[in-house]
Amino acid sequence: MNDATSVFKRQSNRRKFLKNGMIAAGAATLGAGVLGGGFPTFGRDEDDRAPITKGDFAILTFLSALEQVEEDLWAQYSELGGTQDDEVSGVNGGNSFYQAALQILDGDMAQYVHDNTDDEISHHRFLNNFLASKGAKTVDLRKEGFAVLPSSQADGAVQMKRLTNLTQLTVDTTFWSRYRSITNPDFDPGAMFVPAVPSLGVKEHTAIPRTNQDTAGSVISNNNALTITTHLQAIAFTAGFHFAFIEQGGSSLYPTLAQKVTNLQVLRILLSIGPSETMHFQTWQDKAGNALPISDTDTGFPGSTGATVTFTDLTKAQGETDPESLNGDTLQANLIMPEPTHFIDPALGPVAIVRPTSTKLNGAVAAVQGFVDDGLFRDPSKPGHNTKIVDRLMELAEEADAAFREF
Fold it and tell me: I want to staple 237 with a disulfide (CB 3.0 to 4.6 A). Which of 47, 217, 291, 365 is the partner?
């Protein structure tokens, strides 16, 4: 009994010591915080540790502008191919034939398109709201007069002026083999990666129906039996690879620009939005791999370019090699996890990462140039020319790339 009492007393004394010790430690910490700047350290927000610099604002402004570009292109996809509800404003019933063609890639494509659109709208809105909360100027490319491109004339499209053109795309699909290879473009800028669909990188292709002629011949019967023309399938498959192309750019852009940020709250924003872009990319490359082996020449339709696109069965494509490919020639559809690659120092061994993340290869200017090369800003009324939005985006991009981390 005495032993038990002794144990209870020792436990009680220990609790008193810990309690008193924590109070003393807390007082010491409080004192240190007050002495340092007059306010308790634990009450500070992340943005109090370093000011938001001019470079930070330049990065946020550029990203807000680029997210508005993505919002614009995804809204067009959503109007025609996405789930039709009031979460994404302005939808007009969709285009059932285009939706059915997209569903060949995955039965949930309409919901995925809808949700990606909703995400991009939220990114642009949030970045502008954050800029405004800090007394900085927001960016709205529409109000600046850059929405000058026509809408699709197919059923379901909302008739309004656009920032982007989805009907004359030249899609670089080398992103496909870049992540299936051990080669990191940051280490080997001259590395050549095999495109998943080489013909998409030649001439101009539409990723949405331009008029009802692009959906003509497709039939959805009363019992939901589908007959989707090869032409409309090609348009939908083009969209599937374009979805992934767009989102892989954001996957690299956010970590690239995060390296230039000074303020911790701004850093938190970039590190939190960036991974959502990667989640999009992961989804879209998985769905694009379900494209059927077809070939179509775009002729006889309004705005047709005579371009031929050929999709192969990537589910039967070459898989991983042994040793791992150094040439980026693995195309197997279900290899959607990034192969480990060299990073920082090859002596450290391969590691699975997002790449590239260097300013030269995927900084702000490189991101805009990628969109330009993709054909997003082609002016159909002036063949061979882009709209004036390119100059504005390049201006913002150069300011973002000029930012640097201040200590």
Answer: 291
